[in-house]
Amino acid sequence: MSETNLEKYQNPEKYDELYEHYQDDYLYIMEYARHINRPIIDLACGTGRVTIPLSKKGLTMIGVDLHAGMLDRAKQKATQEQLDIRFEQQDCSNLDLGVQSPLIFMTGNSFQHFLTNESQDALFESVKKHLASGGGFIFDTRNPILAELSAGDVSEERYLNSNNQTVIEKHTEEYDHHSQILHCTTETIIQEREQSIQQSTESIALRYTYPLELKRLLATHGFEWINIHGSWKKTVFEESSPQMIVHCKIG
């Protein structure tokens, strides 16, 4: 995962506001984690959105992320809840945690931050090194619906912020078929009395991986494919499914 592809996460508080009520991934993970009495590893844990509620259920958690600001927010929240969670600032493709876990998971489509074949390979080798024998790895990634990606997208939304200022967000998406990377740019303009007082631009690149690519990738690194779902609610994976929820294990 590249440190240059993290612009979208510069405001951890805003991230929490957007996703604090989302629980589908937490509920899925909890189903497989509830009886584990050894450390569970949450990769790309961000602000601890899933790590913290699992810890509150009595599970021993390790949260890993590359972004210092997101981790600081996670630590602050854990301290407020009086939870003992080990947070580590590390690259998920080069982990050195000194433990082997029965379960490692990565949510929030973070898999799409691994933009090259080499970085994907490194991620799976890193995960494998930290999985106990028979241990499971669960992660999600957006389903590459080619018709949508090929069309590209330009959109705009307007809303009032907490200061009663008008916020205009202009979104542009462009897909590179050769690299299978979607380049997303958001230009934000804040206005008062129709005058711009602040303007910023942020971008993110997201790699799309196809189902058969994933199966071959997992097999290459010694993982056994358990299941694929079309959402965290375990819907059947279909052509139009928005996501791929991948569940695999090491032998």
UniProtKB/TrEMBL annotation:
Record's Gene3D superfamilies? S-adenosyl-L-methionine-dependent methyltransferases (2.20.25.110), Vaccinia Virus protein VP39 (3.40.50.150)
- Looking at the record, the residues that make up the Methyltransferase domain are 40-135
Q: What would be one Pfam family of this protein?
A: Methyltransf_25
**Biological process, per Gene Ontology:** methylation
The record's annotation in CDD domains points to: AdoMet_MTases
Tagged with keyword Cytoplasm: no
- Top-level lineage group: Bacteria
GO terms for MF: methyltransferase activity
Q: Which SUPFAM superfamilies match?
A: S-adenosyl-L-methionine-dependent methyltransferases (SSF53335)
Q: InterPro entries from the entry?
A: Methyltransf_25, SAM-dependent_MTases_sf
Keywords from UniProt, A to Z, are: Methyltransferase, Transferase
State the name under which the record lists this protein: SAM-dependent methyltransferase
Q: Which organism is it from?
A: Alkalicoccobacillus murimartini
